Prior knowledge:
Spore Coat Polysaccharide Biosynthesis Protein SpsA, Chain A; alpha/beta
Amino acid sequence: MGLEAVKQDTSTWPRPSVSIVIPLLNEAENVQPLYEGLRTAMDQGKRTWEVIFVDDGSTDATFQSLQELHGQDDRVLVVRLRRNFGQTAALAAGFDAAKGSTIVSLDGDLQNDPQDIARLLEKLEEGYDAVSGWRVHRQENFWLRRLPSRVANWLISQTTGVPLHDYGCTLKAYRAELVKELRLYGEMHRFIPALMWGNGGRIAELPVQHHPRLHGRSKYGISRTIRVLLDLITVKFCLTSLTKPLQFFGLIGLLTSGIGLATCFYLAFLRLFWGYPLADRPSLLLGILLVVIGVQFLCVGILAEIQIRAYHESSQKPTYAIREILDTHKKARPEVH
Length: 337
């Protein structure tokens, strides 16, 4: 059953105020205790809620456990993907199916504590658009997990300009209308706060609890770091140069061509006025290469500029985001995007 069918089947339910999205991959032993902890935590408050479990191609009994929960509680929505698409795609599917005005994402391995959700929601109500969890005391190996994570978080913070201590923590709370605007792919889910900040969102961070894994096996590894770094380049470009690619590629092209031309003029001066031979000087080839590369960067920038203009004109997507409008003749209207 596709996501469109899921949306249609659940359209008659009462609209919850909070949607909790949990991606799962082979977490059969964690499903029941996670649901019980989540129900206990959420029923303590006054907010209406739903939980969306996204089965990301599990090969164990995860889906069977989710089926049982769905039969027990109407607030449980299950989205089963046809195969393993990755955590980013699973979260995106959950975001699309969510009906709440606030969306909370949570890991399915019992390492995030559902009791922290209320604190994140309270912080969100202070006027923020996203609140990210910070696993201050991570219950994981220092050399394989915590140290690489600290380096990655520092690099991401410096690159994006959004200083968070823990980009990798799945426990986050978002305003639905903002997070649903994002198109997520690759490993982009960890960059959601930076992407929302790029659209004018207000970001906060709160310390949260982190428990050791009791059941199952971690799906994270060092190999994911390379993919994250590549996506970081994409995020940086989207935040700074998506609407003006020619200024990005053109600047690189002009700088590269300038160095190449300066090198060639210098060598030509030596040859014409001092008689130095150029046949055995590799710097001549370097200068010509830099000029060619610079021209290529300029061409890429022009092509990207044409594509961006065609995209915005065809989709009629504005290059701005309005938070609110104050009109003396009408009541202040809510955020418009």
